[in-house]
Amino acid sequence: MVQQLVNVLALTDEADFKTKSGAYPEVHRTPSAKEQDNKISWVLKWFENRTFRPGGLKEKEYTQFVRFTNWFIMYEGRLYHRGQDAKHRLYVEKKRRMYMLTAAHDHVGHRGFYATNQLLIQRFWWPEMEKDVNWFIKTCHVCQERQKTMLKIKPVITHTPSIFQTLHADVMHMTPASNGCPYIAHGRCAMTSWMEGRALRKLYFTLPHLFRPEWPDSGGIRWNPVEFEQISLKKQEIPVDSGGMVDRNPPESTGMDQNRLKSHFYK
Description:
alpha+beta
């Protein structure tokens, strides 16, 4: 059974291998793993010719290389990594590693790191294979959706709207004047559309004096005195052009000064 699995994974059909394999990224790999992969080509040449010596190596480096080759054996043209109790594992080339990871993980039901790693580590070897398995699991979209990690997310405090918290106000010019009042200040509750109006003799007033006395104090109204003082207790003077219409965007106004009575917020 084990030998059949080795034959299926290690000696795949060429067409099937091309469809299931992909590029093997090495961004996540350590310099040590890349260095060991580079030495594998030397190891293969060393098994063909025991007198082979890579160029540019000093005597100490060559001794370390020979010691590195003792971790491998060649059997029937395949390179194996020595293991304990003669459990040697087949070396997997770079071009076949993505196929191995996909076959051992995706094709057996996305069973996570431990099952995938145990399936591979008992039969195959390449430098830092466990880190590659861990990276492959973390980049799997299906595993991301199935993970059972409990994330502690802070509760979102929602704002409960209430009546008369937001006032949309406007000023209109009225001709001819009624009882000496040429202007009308109009306010509407944004939530209930409750409307109030005041006749004005001049455009110089405070918002609380206009509307707040007529608004009911029941119904869950919660006034914020600080913001109410900052926003509405300032006297508002609306300039009027020669035609008698309200100039909503005077050149010198910016920010809250623009459309002064159009939108005021009471929280």
